[in-house]
Specification:
- This protein has 180 residues and is mainly alpha-helical.
- It folds into two domains: 79 residues, no CATH class; 66 residues, no CATH class.
- Helix content is 48%, strand content 3%.
- It has six helices and two strands.
- It is elongated and about 55 Å long.
- Bound molecules: zinc ion (2 copies).
Protein backbone atom coordinates (compact mmCIF):
# COMPACT_ATOMS: atom_id res chain seq x y z
CA UNK A 1 0.00 0.00 0.00
CA UNK A 2 1.31 3.42 -0.95
CA UNK A 3 1.45 5.74 2.03
CA UNK A 4 2.74 9.29 2.41
CA UNK A 5 1.06 10.19 -0.90
CA UNK A 6 -2.54 11.34 -1.22
CA UNK A 7 -4.36 8.77 -3.36
CA UNK A 8 -6.72 11.40 -4.72
CA UNK A 9 -4.47 14.32 -5.66
CA UNK A 10 -0.95 12.89 -5.30
CA UNK A 11 0.29 15.49 -2.80
CA UNK A 12 3.09 14.49 -0.43
CA UNK A 13 4.74 15.75 2.74
CA UNK A 14 7.32 17.60 0.61
CA UNK A 15 4.79 18.87 -1.93
CA UNK A 16 1.56 19.60 -0.07
CA UNK A 17 -1.47 21.18 -1.75
CA UNK A 18 -0.79 24.87 -2.53
CA UNK A 19 -3.44 26.05 -0.07
CA UNK A 20 -2.06 23.77 2.65
CA UNK A 21 -3.16 20.32 3.79
CA UNK A 22 -2.41 17.60 6.32
CA UNK A 23 -2.95 13.84 6.49
CA UNK A 24 -6.60 12.99 7.04
CA UNK A 25 -5.99 9.36 8.01
CA UNK A 26 -3.55 7.60 10.29
CA UNK A 27 -2.03 5.61 7.43
CA UNK A 28 -1.30 8.87 5.54
CA UNK A 29 -3.00 7.97 2.27
CA UNK A 30 -5.45 10.88 1.88
CA UNK A 31 -5.01 14.60 2.52
CA UNK A 32 -7.46 16.78 4.45
CA UNK A 33 -8.26 18.93 1.42
CA UNK A 34 -9.30 15.92 -0.71
CA UNK A 35 -11.34 14.47 2.15
CA UNK A 36 -13.28 17.76 2.45
CA UNK A 37 -13.83 17.85 -1.31
CA UNK A 38 -15.11 14.27 -1.40
CA UNK A 39 -17.47 15.13 1.50
CA UNK A 40 -18.88 17.97 -0.60
CA UNK A 41 -19.93 15.47 -3.30
CA UNK A 42 -23.33 13.72 -3.40
CA UNK A 43 -23.51 11.07 -0.60
CA UNK A 44 -23.62 8.02 -2.91
CA UNK A 45 -20.52 9.20 -4.74
CA UNK A 46 -18.82 10.05 -1.46
CA UNK A 47 -19.27 6.42 -0.34
CA UNK A 48 -18.06 4.95 -3.66
CA UNK A 49 -14.95 7.14 -3.72
CA UNK A 50 -14.17 6.49 -0.06
CA UNK A 51 -14.41 2.73 -0.75
CA UNK A 52 -12.13 2.98 -3.80
CA UNK A 53 -9.62 5.06 -1.83
CA UNK A 54 -9.57 2.51 1.00
CA UNK A 55 -9.05 -0.28 -1.57
CA UNK A 56 -6.34 1.77 -3.28
CA UNK A 57 -8.11 1.13 -6.61
CA UNK A 58 -6.69 3.94 -8.77
CA UNK A 59 -8.64 2.93 -11.90
CA UNK A 60 -11.92 3.07 -10.00
CA UNK A 61 -10.96 6.38 -8.35
CA UNK A 62 -10.13 7.83 -11.77
CA UNK A 63 -13.43 6.61 -13.25
CA UNK A 64 -15.52 8.00 -10.37
CA UNK A 65 -13.71 11.32 -10.35
CA UNK A 66 -14.19 11.73 -14.11
CA UNK A 67 -17.92 11.03 -13.75
CA UNK A 68 -18.20 13.52 -10.89
CA UNK A 69 -16.19 16.08 -12.82
CA UNK A 70 -18.40 15.83 -15.90
CA UNK A 71 -21.57 16.11 -13.78
CA UNK A 72 -20.22 19.14 -11.89
CA UNK A 73 -19.16 20.96 -15.05
CA UNK A 74 -22.48 20.34 -16.80
CA UNK A 75 -24.34 21.60 -13.73
CA UNK A 76 -22.27 24.80 -13.55
CA UNK A 77 -22.72 25.26 -17.29
CA UNK A 78 -26.50 24.85 -16.95
CA UNK A 79 -26.49 27.55 -14.23
CA UNK A 80 -24.57 29.80 -16.68
CA UNK A 81 -21.76 30.19 -14.14
CA UNK A 82 -18.41 31.44 -15.36
CA UNK A 83 -15.03 32.27 -13.79
CA UNK A 84 -13.77 35.84 -13.86
CA UNK A 85 -10.03 36.38 -13.42
CA UNK A 86 -7.91 39.45 -12.91
CA UNK A 87 -4.30 39.19 -14.08
CA UNK A 88 -1.52 41.74 -13.66
CA UNK A 89 -0.18 42.60 -17.15
CA UNK A 90 3.12 40.76 -16.70
CA UNK A 91 1.31 37.70 -15.40
CA UNK A 92 -1.17 37.89 -18.29
CA UNK A 93 1.70 37.94 -20.78
CA UNK A 94 3.32 34.96 -19.03
CA UNK A 95 0.05 33.00 -19.00
CA UNK A 96 -0.38 33.74 -22.71
CA UNK A 97 3.14 32.41 -23.35
CA UNK A 98 2.35 29.25 -21.39
CA UNK A 99 -0.80 28.77 -23.46
CA UNK A 100 1.13 29.20 -26.68
CA UNK A 101 3.68 26.66 -25.46
CA UNK A 102 0.87 24.20 -24.72
CA UNK A 103 -0.63 24.88 -28.16
CA UNK A 104 2.58 23.56 -29.75
CA UNK A 105 1.76 20.10 -28.40
CA UNK A 106 1.09 17.85 -31.41
CA UNK A 107 -1.39 15.68 -29.50
CA UNK A 108 -3.78 18.51 -28.68
CA UNK A 109 -7.40 17.77 -29.64
CA UNK A 110 -9.08 20.21 -32.07
CA UNK A 111 -11.54 21.25 -29.32
CA UNK A 112 -8.77 22.16 -26.88
CA UNK A 113 -6.82 23.88 -29.65
CA UNK A 114 -9.86 26.04 -30.38
CA UNK A 115 -10.19 27.06 -26.72
CA UNK A 116 -6.47 27.88 -26.55
CA UNK A 117 -6.52 29.87 -29.80
CA UNK A 118 -9.51 31.90 -28.63
CA UNK A 119 -7.89 32.71 -25.31
CA UNK A 120 -4.62 33.73 -27.00
CA UNK A 121 -6.65 35.99 -29.31
CA UNK A 122 -8.25 37.61 -26.24
CA UNK A 123 -4.82 38.27 -24.70
CA UNK A 124 -3.63 39.75 -27.99
CA UNK A 125 -6.67 42.05 -28.16
CA UNK A 126 -6.22 43.19 -24.57
CA UNK A 127 -2.56 44.08 -25.11
CA UNK A 128 -3.43 45.91 -28.34
CA UNK A 129 -5.14 48.58 -26.22
CA UNK A 130 -1.92 49.80 -24.57
CA UNK A 131 1.01 47.54 -25.38
CA UNK A 132 1.35 47.11 -29.16
CA UNK A 133 4.78 45.46 -28.86
CA UNK A 134 3.32 42.82 -26.56
CA UNK A 135 0.51 42.21 -29.06
CA UNK A 136 3.09 41.74 -31.83
CA UNK A 137 5.13 39.40 -29.60
CA UNK A 138 2.01 37.30 -28.99
CA UNK A 139 1.26 37.19 -32.73
CA UNK A 140 4.87 36.13 -33.41
CA UNK A 141 4.59 33.58 -30.62
CA UNK A 142 2.07 31.65 -32.72
CA UNK A 143 4.75 31.01 -35.36
CA UNK A 144 7.53 28.52 -34.50
CA UNK A 145 9.74 30.25 -37.10
CA UNK A 146 10.16 33.10 -34.57
CA UNK A 147 11.31 30.80 -31.73
CA UNK A 148 14.62 31.78 -30.13
CA UNK A 149 16.48 30.34 -27.13
CA UNK A 150 15.20 32.03 -23.98
CA UNK A 151 17.40 34.95 -22.97
CA UNK A 152 16.91 37.07 -19.86
CA UNK A 153 17.80 40.71 -20.60
CA UNK A 154 19.19 41.61 -17.14
CA UNK A 155 21.25 39.84 -14.51
CA UNK A 156 18.54 40.59 -11.92
CA UNK A 157 16.99 37.43 -10.49
CA UNK A 158 13.65 36.84 -12.14
CA UNK A 159 10.69 37.31 -9.80
CA UNK A 160 7.59 35.43 -10.90
CA UNK A 161 4.44 37.50 -10.40
CA UNK A 162 2.05 34.65 -9.60
CA UNK A 163 0.81 36.40 -6.45
CA UNK A 164 -0.92 38.91 -8.68
CA UNK A 165 -3.39 36.38 -10.04
CA UNK A 166 -6.75 37.17 -8.53
CA UNK A 167 -9.84 35.04 -8.96
CA UNK A 168 -12.89 37.14 -8.26
CA UNK A 169 -15.67 35.40 -6.38
CA UNK A 170 -18.14 34.29 -7.54
CA UNK A 171 -15.71 32.86 -10.02
CA UNK A 172 -16.19 33.04 -13.72
CA UNK A 173 -13.93 32.37 -16.75
CA UNK A 174 -15.44 34.29 -19.61
CA UNK A 175 -14.74 32.59 -22.91
CA UNK A 176 -15.76 34.00 -26.23
CA UNK A 177 -19.09 32.46 -27.07
CA UNK A 178 -19.61 31.66 -23.39
CA UNK A 179 -21.63 34.73 -22.48
CA UNK A 180 -23.24 37.47 -24.55
ZN1 LIG B 1 -5.14 15.22 -1.70
ZN1 LIG C 1 -3.01 17.67 -0.20
Amino acid sequence: MTTDTCRLCGCTEDHPCPTGCAWADETRTVCTLCVERVRAMPPELHVLIATAVTAGDQDEIQKLLLQALAADLLELQAEAKAMEMGLAPITAFQVCGLLQLALRHPGLSPELRLVGDRLVALFEQWFDAGAPAAAIAIRRGADPAHDRPLTVPTTEPFEPAVDEIEVKPPSLIVLPGGRG
